[in-house]
Amino acid sequence: MRISNILVSVDLGAAATDRVRLAADIAGRFEATLTGVAARQLVTMIPVESPDASERIFEIEETRAKEELAEARALFVREAGERAGTAWRGALAEPLAYLVEQARAADLVVVGRQGPADGDPGLMGVAAGALLMEVGRPVLVAPPGVERLAAKRMVVAWKDTREARRAVHDALPFLVRADQVHVAVAGPDARREGVADVAAYLSGHGVSVATHLLHQPEIGAADEILRFARREDADLIVMGAYGHSRLREWVFGGATRDMLQGTSLSCLMSH
Q1: Going by C-beta distance under 8 Å and a sequence separation of 6 or more, which residues neighbour residue 65?
Q2: Is 100 helix (H, G, I), strand (E, B) or coil?
């Protein structure tokens, strides 16, 4: 299995440079096209005294938005490096909706982590959680400061659900290239999650795999998986993403929410 097109969400936040470099590193490994995507929605709800003033404010806002898109494109071109197979998509549009639209031809979408201490990505930022719920593609959540991904040692955070099964399948291009894959199950029902079948499935694809039952995590499931991954010297976690819509907002499961906001390792997630 191969990855032929990778999309990376580009904004003007502090972590955007790291994210583009990470996506370029992955694209280089798979000899894939790297497509930078950015959108900026116009801010139009501004009270004005006259139609002429409204038109002037709109023109100023439109000019500012186009300048920010140009900055984002320049950042992408600079950080993607001198490599063949790059493309750019930018528009005056709502960022999440535009990225979801462009992802129809992507094998993987790279987006930034947005934790409480990660800073504001600005008006072009895309929330990783909402993207996961809507995009229908695997999403790699990139924490700030990560520019490279060896993916030689990986952890699959397994739970016998549709989302986790989808994530394992979506991650196969990475899993088959890894030197070692650890399938870890956390929680009191670990033995009932079918981890042996998952190991057999991966072995059938030529993956070197070991299984681990983390019966009684001393901390939350996400922190336990991260701690286990660091102990095994892994730099990529694969897991399902769980969430549902409530009052026009996405509500996430505890481990999903914690990973989206606090993962210190790259995390490939599917819904």
Answers
A1: 40, 41, 42, 92, 123
A2: helix
> Which residue in 191, 259, 188, 195 sits closest to 223, CA to CA?
259
C-alpha span between 197 and 238 (Å, rounded)? 17
Verify that 137 and 48 share a domain, yes or no: yes
Q: How far is CA 32 from the centre of its chain?
A: 17
Q: Where are the beta strands (DSSP E) in the chain?
A: 5-9, 33-39, 86-91, 108-112, 139-142, 153-157, 180-186, 209-214, 236-240, 243-246, 249-252, 266-270
> Does residue 80 belong to any structural domain of this protein?
yes
In a shared domain, residues 10 and 132: yes
Number of domains observed in the structure of the chain: 2
Least confident of 54-58, 96-100, 173-177, 226-230: 54-58
Which tens digits make up the pLDDT trace of 212-248?
988 665 667 888 889 999 999 999 999 998 875 543 4
Cβ count near 59 (within 10 Å):
10
Task: Judge if 11 and 132 occupy the same domain.
Answer: yes
Q: What are the structure tokens assigned to 235, written together?
A: 């730099």
DSSP 147-207: -----SEEEEE--SSHHHHHHHHHTHHHHTT-SEEEEEEESTTGGGS-HHHHHHHHHHTT-
* pLDDT tens-digit series, residues 241-253: 887 554 344 445 5
What's the average model confidence in pLDDT over 252-271? 86
Residue 55: which domain range? 5-142
What distance lies between CA 142 and its chain's CA centroid?
6
- Which has more confidence, 55 or 142? 142
As a whole number of angstroms, the distance between CA 7 and CA 140 comes to 10
